[in-house]
Amino acid sequence: MRAAKSVIAGISVDRRLMKGSLLALLITGEILLGHLIAVRPQDPYLIPGAAIGLIVVAVTFMEPVFGLYLFVATAFTEALLMFGSVSAARLLGILVLVAWITRSLAGGRFEIIIPGHAWFAAMLISWGLMSALWAMDAQGLPSALLLLVQLMALYILVINLVNSVRKIKIVLAIIMIVSLALALLTILRVVSGELVEGRVDLGQISVGDPNVQAAYFLPSATLLMILFSHKAQLSQKLLLLLGFSVITLAILATSSRGALVSLVVIFVLGMIIDRRLWQVALPTLLVGGVAWLFLPHTLVEHLEALVTLSDRGAGRVDIWLVALEIIRSHPALGVGLDSFGRAFDKYVSETPGIMRDIGRGRGSHNIFLNVQSELGVIGSALFVVFIGMSLRSGLVAVVNWRRAGSPRTAALALAVFLSLVGVLVVGLFLDVQYWKLFWLLLALPEVMRRLSVQALQRTTSR
Questions:
Q1: Contact criterion met (CB below 8 Å) for 358 and 319
Q2: How far apart (Å, rounded) are the C-alpha atoms in residues 379 and 140?
Q3: CA–CA separation, 76 and 175 (whole Å)
Q4: In angstroms, what CA-CA distances link 358 with 271, 313, 346?
Q5: Per-domain residue ranges for the chain?
Q6: Dihedral of the alpha carbons of 266, 269, 273, 278, in degrees to the nearest 10
Q7: pLDDT grade, residue 348 (50/70/90)?
Q8: Of residues 350, 429, 337, 317, the one with CA closest to residue 382
Q9: Alpha-carbon distance 65 to 46, whole Å?
Q10: Where does residue 325 rank: exposed (0-12), middle (13-18), buried (19+ CB within 10 A)?
Q11: Cα(116)–Cα(113) distance, rounded to whole angstroms?
Q12: In 107-243, where do the E strands start and end?
């Protein structure tokens, strides 16, 4: 059974010792914040910021999943909430991890659930560490390895903290609300003419460039699409259609061709799994047609290049040719974790049939080519198995919830599965392996699968 593949470790501790340690930690934090306020009295935002920080710390230690909810929200607005070179999302992630471990130990027993296929991710990270022995550029390897370890910790946190359908609904609701707010801001910038190179860029608020921003809209678009097809009341359908239209227009405004391809794949695959998604076809065509008429000319030209490839996929075709040359030269072990940029500079002049002005130190713009280039056949095998088993968990969850007689929860499971598929499709055009959203979506299908197994067992035992 899949459930047998999970590992649960228990550690008994002295409760009084852990509660005392927690109290000491909070007192130390208050002393440090008091000192900071004393040495920087001229900063007007420090006191309210410190107060909010203390509240967040207290709430997170009382209930770590609340901190995880805040993490999900801040992950979508990472550029807006920066403290030097560290984002609020990263600080929250560390806080949630510490709070979860501390609170679990204070309760007298520490339990951790690790799905069987998570060990493939752990082996992938270990293989990345070993690649330091032959890495073409070992300078960036420690930071890349640290980031992967942090993302793996996020994966484990989601598996253990989001342990009910209600909590999954809250996570998805947070994603949808934040995405709708960012989508409205994107549309406002189109209306006001605030375009950067013919597209909307929320880089000062959201994450990454417009392509990344568009990809972060995909889970909300998927969820709204599925909810629309499962609601019966006209008022609810109209409200959901409005939300879906806003998200779709925002994706179009970013001119991200990868996100558009992903949206089409989500829609087609969704219709194959759930025929009710056909209801979204006509509204989607209408929204697309209206957008095509009213979007700025520069956006339309950029989208037309998706079909013609007049810009060679913004140089991606040439980058992929270089990646294939790297793979041909280093098929077994690869060039080492985070060494693609150095290898690109070495092999770009040896790759036939490409433009010579595509720059230096480029990223691979494809997660599968990236993993094969950097970690070779072994790394690729571990990565593909991990991804494949995560996708399988998503499909099993959909089937189990249907068999358990819970079509609404099955619809949520389908939204989670299709969201992961959507980001993987974007991964054919972008390097998504270091995205927080990617690892969040890798964890949710497994959570849905475990909950569906429990629901199915309750149904069959009646």
A1: yes
A2: 18
A3: 8
A4: 39, 12, 13
A5: 2-111, 120-311+364-460
A6: 70
A7: confident
A8: 337
A9: 26
A10: buried
A11: 10
A12: 113-114
Contacts of 330 (CB under 8 A, 6+ apart): 343, 373, 376
In sign, the C-alpha dihedral spanning 352, 355, 356, 360 is negative
User: In the numeric block, which tokens belong to residue 262?
Assistant: 């992903």
d(CA 414, CA 395): 8
pLDDT tens digits, 373-426: 999 999 999 999 999 999 999 999 999 999 999 999 999 999 999 999 999 999
- Residue 160: pLDDT over 80: yes
Hey, which residues does 8 pair with through a beta bridge? 113
Q: What are phi and psi of 296, to 5 degrees?
A: -55, 150
Q: Report the first-to-last Cα separation within the chain, whole angstroms.
A: 21
Polymer length of the chain: 462
Give the C-alpha separation, 340 to 334, whole Å. 9
What one-character DSSP code corresponds to residue 163?
-
Q: How far is C-alpha 343 from the geometric centre of its chain's CA atoms?
A: 27
- If we measure between CA atoms, which residue out of 92, 58, 62, 63 comes closest to residue 78? 92
What amino acid occupies position 111? E
Quote the radius of gyration of the chain (alpha carbons, Å).
23
Tokens of 44: 């007007």
Contact 314/199 with Cβ under 8 angstroms?
Answer: no
Closest listed residue to residue 391, CA positions, set 273, 246, 231? 273
Residue 309's alpha-carbon distances to 212, 256, 410, 419, in angstroms, are: 20, 14, 38, 26
Please state, as a whole number, how many other Cβ atoms lie within 10 Å of the Cβ of residue 356: 7
**Distance in angstroms (rounded) separating the CA atoms of residues 130 and 144:** 13
The Cα-based distances of 178 to 69, 70, 216, 396 in angstroms read 12, 11, 10, 29
Q: Which amino acid is at 455?
A: A
Give the C-alpha distances (Å, rounded to integers) separating 295 from 19, 200, 249, 291: 58, 11, 9, 6
pTM score, whole prediction: 0.88
Backbone φ, ψ for residue 265 (5° rounding) = -60, -45
Residue with tokens 């997170």: 60
What gap in Å lies between CA 206 and CA 203, rounded to an integer? 5
- 409 vs 404: CA distance, rounded Å: 10
